[in-house]
Specification:
Layout: H1 3-25, E1 39-47, E2 50-57, E3 63-64, H2 67-71, E4 81-87, E5 90-95, E6 100-105, E7 111-115, E8 122-128, E9 131-136, E10 147-152, E11 157-163, E12 171-174, E13 177-184, E14 187-195, E15 200-206, E16 213-217, E17 220-225, E18 228-233, E19 238-244, E20 253-258, E21 261-266, E22 269-274, E23 284-287, E24 299-303, E25 306-311, E26 320-325, E27 330-335, E28 340-345
Antiparallel strand pairs: 1-2, 1-28, 2-3, 4-5, 5-6, 6-7, 8-9, 9-10, 10-11, 12-13, 13-14, 14-15, 16-17, 17-18, 18-19, 20-21, 21-22, 22-23, 24-25, 25-26, 26-27
């Protein structure tokens, strides 16, 4: 081998080693396949003709409506869509009017499977250790038949049902346990703790009347009721701090927490308070002046410095989404599907 060729081989080898090392040290982000990987999913409850899902891209320039039907040859996800929960690249869309959960790829919205038996007015879900835990309201005349369906995510079969002993509404998982809001439609004042190993309710904590929101933040559970916000220590499952509601606010709903700030609504106005405060603020960030009798703040979420509002208008025509800055300036407004009730960020 002549000296020039030997030098060339060495140079190529060194370059290859450096290139591989550089790639390993600086891995490129993996961009999922699909049109819906960067933006916000908007769930539209719908009516007797069925619900739908809209998508707003990260640039907030255009809403694409009815993406489920578009990806699945016109098929819809069911009647009266309630919520979506996620497990990695899968999204689980709950239809409480059809007693159905549609499983889709969260980025393409291609239908992968369904849970279509064993549900009765399903509401919310959470995932823990390969299982989904989904609350079911059953009969509206009583809360004693409400249950949590335990679903094997490999087979999409219900393995077990757990009677809650009260309303089964919003549900969250943290530290290997599951917490259930035992209140719906303004009634109820307890939170239940479910042990996923024994699938039994092990403890119930009483808070204030009118419990309407629970949120997990910084390893604590927060509950919003008619008295204000309660911070719950999950180790002892007791209320450790209370942040009182001022008399100037007749009611409060829709608790969200971001960057150590509470966000909540009252009437057609949104408010914010530091989590270190002893009383909730009654000074509105904005009042969007909805004239909807029952559809104002039908959806509400806070994400990356913006407040998202879903307004259901008259529940017969398409709803609207408003995006506000944290200072209360209207940033964007879009028409979406019927009765937008929740937002999910991709």
């Amino acid at each position: 081998m002549n000296t020039y060729f030997k030098f060339l081989v060495i140079a190529i080898s060194v370059f290859a080693i450096i290139s591989c090392s550089s790639d390993d040290d600086n891995p490129q982000p993996v961009i999922p396949d699909g049109d819906y990987f960067n933006g916000v999913l908007i769930l539209n409850e719908g009516g007797s003709a069925g619900g739908s899902v809209s998508f707003l891209g990260a640039d907030q320039q255009e809403v694409v409506n009815d993406i489920f039907a578009e990806a699945n040859d016109g098929q819809g996800p069911g009647l009266f869509l309630q919520s979506i929960f996620f497990d990695d690249e899968k999204a689980y869309i709950i239809s409480n009017g059809s007693d159905l959960i549609s499983v889709v790829n969260r980025y393409t919205f291609e239908l992968l499977g369904t849970v279509d038996s064993g549900l009765s007015v399903p509401r919310y879900g959470t995932v823990l250790n390969g299982k989904a835990y989904v609350t079911n309201l059953v009969e509206f005349s009583t809360d004693q038949d409400d249950y949590v369906a335990v679903i094997d995510l490999e087979t999409l079969e219900i393995e077990e049902t757990v009677i809650v002993g009260g309303s089964a509404e919003y549900i969250v998982s943290i530290f290997g346990d599951i917490y259930i809001q035992n209140a719906s439609f303004g009634n109820g004042n307890t939170i239940s703790k479910l042990n996923p190993i024994s699938n039994t309710i092990t403890e119930t904590l009483q808070v204030g009347d009118g419990l309407n929101s629970i949120q997990v933040y910084n390893q604590k559970l927060y509950a919003l009721d008619s008295e204000g916000v309660k911070r719950i220590d999950l180790g002892t499952f007791t209320v450790e701090t209370e942040i009182n509601k001022p008399e100037a606010l007749t009611s409060v709903s829709n608790l969200r927490i971001e960057n150590d700030q509470f966000y909540y609504t009252s009437g057609t106005a949104a408010f914010t308070t530091s989590i270190s405060s002893s009383e909730l603020s009654s000074e509105a960030i904005f009042d969007y002046g909805s004239d909807s009798a029952f559809g104002s703040f039908y959806g509400f979420e806070v994400n990356e410095g913006q407040i998202y509002v879903g307004d259901a208008a008259d529940f017969a025509s398409n709803g609207s989404v408003f995006i506000y800055s944290l200072e209360g300036q209207l940033v964007k407004e879009f028409n979406v599907g019927l009765a937008p009730n929740s937002f999910y960020f991709q």
